[in-house]
Design goal:
The chain is an all-alpha fold. The protein is built from one helix and no strands. It is rod-shaped.
Length: 42
């Protein structure tokens, strides 16, 4: 593969990693927000 394809592959992989990390952080935030909003029964 030439240099352009390697750069495109690396950029695509980096984009997938960053997007996945953002989705996981969003879901974690939503879960913790729902936990705080729910009344606690003890």
């Amino acid at each position: 593969m030439n240099r352009t394809r390697w750069l495109a592959l690396a950029a695509g992989a980096l984009l997938l990693l960053v997007a996945g990390r953002m989705v996981l952080r969003y879901l974690d935030y939503e879960a913790s927000e729902a936990d705080r909003a729910a009344p606690r029964r003890t």
